[in-house]
Automatic annotation (TrEMBL):
<keyword id="KW-0813">Transport</keyword>
<feature type="transmembrane region" description="Helical">
    <location>
        <begin position="110"/>
        <end position="129"/>
    </location>
</feature>
<dbReference type="GO" id="GO:0015293">
    <property type="term" value="F:symporter activity"/>
</dbReference>
<feature type="transmembrane region" description="Helical">
    <location>
        <begin position="40"/>
        <end position="60"/>
    </location>
</feature>
<feature type="transmembrane region" description="Helical">
    <location>
        <begin position="169"/>
        <end position="189"/>
    </location>
</feature>
<keyword id="KW-1133">Transmembrane helix</keyword>
<keyword id="KW-0472">Membrane</keyword>
<keyword id="KW-0915">Sodium</keyword>
<feature type="transmembrane region" description="Helical">
    <location>
        <begin position="136"/>
        <end position="163"/>
    </location>
</feature>
<keyword id="KW-1003">Cell membrane</keyword>
<dbReference type="Pfam" id="PF00474">
    <property type="entry name" value="SSF"/>
</dbReference>
<dbReference type="InterPro" id="IPR051163">
    <property type="entry name" value="Sodium:Solute_Symporter_SSF"/>
</dbReference>
<comment type="similarity">
    <text>Belongs to the sodium:solute symporter (SSF) (TC 2.A.21) family.</text>
</comment>
<dbReference type="GO" id="GO:0005886">
    <property type="term" value="C:plasma membrane"/>
</dbReference>
<keyword id="KW-0812">Transmembrane</keyword>
<keyword id="KW-0739">Sodium transport</keyword>
<dbReference type="InterPro" id="IPR038377">
    <property type="entry name" value="Na/Glc_symporter_sf"/>
</dbReference>
Length: 224
């Protein structure tokens, strides 16, 4: 979080008088950091490519699902998350309905089918992302649904020893519903501009080789 804050301050110090978003050089706030790297490091051979490689490495780092010991679950972060989710669904919901003598090959086929279904849903949701605005607030909001519920369950277990499994279950469900309702309403009011967050003052007075035509056409002056 501290690195993100310092990165934002550095970008503001550079673009406060020539905001790429206002000038039309980028179309989304999420594009500001890649634009900054390409703008600053375009004269350093290999550095922009190293930055892109770092982004891909973050998504393709080695990982393993702790739910299962099968080696085929070792893969990239994205596929590991999908495989972990499949293993969790199978272990918690499907395995109780499967015969104990089921072969590992059959179990593997079940997991592969689940992976295809979850992967397809994930791929379809990619087309929804452009309509959700900034990704970071959305990701934090979605994570807070599960995080808040887990915090409530752990706190209840520590401070309320008399709580039983049924009470914890109903409380967790109520927490998820309530948190989801809050997040949905917040996202809706952000989309209709009822909730807005003021930004630091920026302008385009310091832009070089820049005209009003760039704002309407979205052309990049560096490419002209």
């Amino acid at each position: 979080m501290s690195i993100s804050i310092f990165t934002g301050l550095i970008m503001f110090a550079k673009y406060w008088d020539c905001d790429p978003l206002v000038s039309g050089r980028i179309s989304q706030p999420d594009e500001l950091l890649p634009y900054y790297i390409l703008d600053v490091a375009r004269t350093v051979p290999g550095l922009p490519g190293l930055f892109i490689a770092g982004i891909f490495s973050a998504a393709l780092r080695y990982s393993k699902c702790p739910k299962d010991d099968h080696s085929y679950l070792k893969s990239s972060t994205l596929s590991a998350v999908i495989n972990c989710l499949c293993a969790s669904i199978y272990e918690d919901f499907i395995s109780r309905y499967v015969f104990k003598g089921t072969s590992e090959r059959t179990v593997s086929n079940y997991l592969k089918v689940l992976a295809i279904i979850i992967g397809s849903i994930t791929t379809i949701l990619v087309y929804v992302v452009p309509y959700l605005g900034n990704l970071l607030p959305l990701a934090v909001s979605i994570g807070s649904v599960a995080g808040g519920t887990l915090l409530g369950l752990y706190t209840s277990a520590v401070l309320i020893p008399a709580i039983n499994a049924k009470g914890a279950l109903y409380g967790g469900i109520a927490s998820i519903i309530f948190a989801t309702w809050i997040i949905f309403c917040a996202q809706y009011y952000r989309s209709v501009k009822v909730i807005t967050y003021p930004t630091l003052p920026v302008g385009i007075n310091g832009c070089q080789n820049f005209t009003l035509a760039n704002i309407t056409t979205g052309q990049n002056p560096h490419l002209q």
